[in-house]
């Protein structure tokens, strides 16, 4: 993970920036390698974006670290004190994120599989809904739609899946399938509403999805006060626990929270990739996203594409909602979406509009989320650092020109983001 | 050297052809109106308790006492309901023009609201009408300011989804500086920080050509993360020294503030509310009547043409986006030092998005956005007023919460329909590329 390797680099400087600007004759393997590193290949851009975000995050950590500020008070007397305090704060924070999301080296000696795989399990658990919801936003992006409403769709899915989960009592395998389908239905319903409004009346989906978020929030808060949906003894805004039969089975043993929803997320990634790149509908969808006029001329019904896309988009967000309520937190609450709906947008942006990219972006942000728990537990650095890092990464990713400028990369003409700039009208 | 270009030479003559709404939409809207009318007459008119509805008009500070208005609720609802049904029938048969429809829509909204309040007021307690308006304006102020920030940005062709983030950052800076250096320093800090976020938006949108909706979303996350981080790092364990700014008290304007009803509502508010009046009026006038306004609109509609006649498109966009950020930052200041008196994580809680909705709802015009923002504000106040009266049928506050959003969806879908943003809104301008 690159957030590890760059952890201690407080100043904005890179290994490359000191070398000569242009290598005229790249010869041999080293030259070619350098050539790759100096190009603006998407992978390089992504790594450098993460690196730049980590550097800015380090500055933030140092600036807010009490020990460093104290040491900086006598900087001229003992400059090493400041530097070591700064190093301590920065490395402590990034190590904590790593230990919370990938592996805690101290757990290796214990030999207990549960503690060794605990962090990975947490990463998977956090990543699963992000992947689903990220795919949802990605698919909408490719059709030229902005789905700001993943939050509302997740909430609706949680209501549906949760209700089926705790009030119906079905046999083992059947129950979870029915509950997940109910979640999909809930999400599809909510996004489909925005799709129909867009197709039939032209109401802008940014507005309708944002509004539907609030409506969903009001709805879930209302339901959590209604007997039958609210758990006894009716003093907390929380639903009864979902039946064991309706829960996704555990993936890595019962002690770890990782569950089968992650496998569904992998399948969904493949399915969305196929849908986008191989199916007829995917072709129509991309055409509408790329150029409405061309699509209309080619005889594609834009309004029906909008409606179908939004139904699928909502179904994916619905899977995210079901993953929450049937996977990790088996009681419906009004914050069951856990900010996934909005993080999904950044995940999708990091994934550059490709399903596979969205998957890995979801994994990265899932790791950061899991790490933030450890960050809060073991350091003085506030866990909101993770959110800042996420925003910075995406900001740099979205502006390849800036990364090129900072790291003096060559422009190769490629490496454009899949999401083209567009206004309200298009 | 070419001759200096005068504004007159920039005028492009448009011939606007107004196409009426489609037959189906007209029918749907008309039926909607009739349903609202029938509901008003038959449900509100009959389920009210038999006591009279009472409207109170006194609010703190007013010197002139206005007697409480008391009238029979049922006939009032019948008349209002009948009027709305008639409007629906007229729309079905003849059809209002889009412009008229906007007035009819607003009128029906107000009438329905009055009928609803009358119905709610039959429970024996007085509906405090003046304080409803007062509170509504208070709730609407950040929305109006946020929307004005959005309009400044978007009329010059840069989409501003980052209003939320600018407000949040402004709220944080306002609380911090307001505590450390005084309230006015807090306001300035909020404006500066909002402007800085605006600058960030401008640089990424204009120089690096980032998709502006994406950019806005990301800046919101950044502002949320940064303020949350700094809140934990600075404010959480020293709230007295860093997060205790108090807030502006209402400053009553002499004479104007004594006018019954209007006075307490409009002229007994704090400085930020007064600043909001000035900003709305200035933007509304400047956008249409000044050279800057004409250029802004030209750049937002057709940057190539504007460039051709010598307007510096990018510089104007930079200016407007930063200015918009400043106004949104002021909106943030209202959240902390205008009203509450302290910062908490995510204090803006989506109000920036509501402001954005107001911009679009109001068709990118200051007046329209003002109206939409006021609507949201009053809907919020309505809920707290209803919790003091004793309506014949208890309405769940969560469901009532949803009302403004549902109304927005209906309005965007039914009344506003296909809104037309400034033609170049969201499209980066690269000189010589088109």
Automatic annotation (TrEMBL), chain A:
Annotated membrane topology: Multi-pass membrane protein
Pfam families for this protein: BPD_transp_2
Comp. bias regions, Polar residues: 14-23
Localization per Swiss-Prot or TrEMBL: Cell membrane
GO MF annotation: an example: transmembrane transporter activity
Transmembrane segments: 43-64, 85-103, 123-141, 148-166, 172-194, 206-224, 256-276, 297-320, 385-407
UniProtKB keywords: Cell membrane, Membrane, Sugar transport, Transmembrane, Transmembrane helix, Transport
Keyword Transmembrane: yes
Region Disordered, residue ranges: 1-32
InterPro entries documented for this protein: ABC_transp_permease (IPR001851)
One GO cellular component term: plasma membrane
Main location: membrane
PANTHER family: ABC TRANSPORTER, PERMEASE PROTEIN, GUANOSINE ABC TRANSPORTER PERMEASE PROTEIN NUPP
Name assigned to this protein: Simple sugar transport system permease protein
Native source species: Allobranchiibius huperziae
Record lineage: Bacteria, Bacillati, Actinomycetota, Actinomycetes, Micrococcales
Automatic annotation (TrEMBL), chain B:
Keyword annotations from UniProtKB, A to Z: Cell membrane, Membrane, Sugar transport, Transmembrane, Transmembrane helix, Transport
GTP-binding found in the keyword field: no
Gene Ontology MF terms: transmembrane transporter activity
Top-level taxonomic group: Bacteria
Listed transmembrane segments: 28-49, 69-93, 100-120, 132-151, 158-177, 183-206, 213-231, 271-288, 321-341, 372-390, 402-421
Secretion signal, residue range per the UniProt entry: none
Membrane topology, as annotated: Multi-pass membrane protein
One annotated Gene Ontology cellular component of this protein: plasma membrane
Coiled coil regions in record: none
Pfam family, one: BPD_transp_2
InterPro entries: ABC_transp_permease
Lineage of the organism: Bacteria, Bacillati, Actinomycetota, Actinomycetes, Micrococcales
Record carries keyword Transmembrane: yes
Subcellular location: Cell membrane
Name of the protein in its database record: Simple sugar transport system permease protein
Chief place where the protein resides: membrane
